[in-house]
């Protein structure tokens, strides 16, 4: 199922029935041994009911960046994501497997 995603601020958001999904954008510092620390863009997959105010984190985090030679055990599929459209597609796949859509 392809959801219709639109931006609310910096966050891609999609609605299905009484549920709202968002990929919440934030930044984190990556500690790299032997190198300078780097700031990394991350998206967290979250859900809420339309009538609620706060989102619940589903535990899926997408680390963005072109660190091709490195993997990240905290990121979905253990790698860095290059494009938000790839993140949206994977988020939809996750939501489908979890029976949200």
- Category by helix and strand content: mainly beta
The rounded Rg comes to 14 Å
Spans of at least 5 consecutive residues whose pLDDT stays below 50 are none
Mean pLDDT: 88
Overall strand count: 5
The tally of helices reads 1
Helix content: 10-25%
First and last CA, distance: 7 Å
Strand content: 35-45%
Largest sheet: 5 strands, antiparallel
Order of helices and strands: EEEEEH
Choose one word for the global shape: elongated
Looking across the biggest beta sheet, what order are the strands in?
1-2-3-4-5
Structure characterization notes:
There is one protein chain. This protein has 101 residues and is mainly β. The protein contains one helix and five strands; from the N terminus they run E-E-E-E-E-H. The protein has a five-stranded antiparallel sheet with strand order 1-2-3-4-5, with helices on one face.
In short:
The chain is mainly beta.
Layout of helices and strands, plus pairs?
Blueprint: E1 6-8, E2 11-16, E3 19-30, E4 38-49, E5 56-63, H1 84-97
Antiparallel strand pairs: 1-2, 2-3, 3-4, 4-5
Task: Tag the structure with descriptive keywords.
5 strands; 101 residues; elongated; mainly beta; five-stranded antiparallel beta sheet
């Amino acid at each position: 199922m392809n959801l219709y995603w639109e931006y609310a601020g910096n966050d891609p958001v999609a609605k299905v029935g009484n549920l709202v999904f968002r990929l919440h954008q934030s930044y984190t510092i990556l500690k790299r041994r032997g190198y300078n620390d780097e700031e990394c863009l991350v998206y967290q997959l979250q859900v809420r009911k339309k009538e609620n105010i706060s989102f619940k984190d589903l535990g899926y985090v997408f680390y963005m960046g072109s660190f091709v030679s490195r993997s990240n055990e905290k990121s979905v599929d253990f790698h860095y994501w290059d494009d938000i459209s790839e993140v949206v597609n994977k988020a939809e796949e996750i939501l489908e497997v979890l029976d949200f859509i």
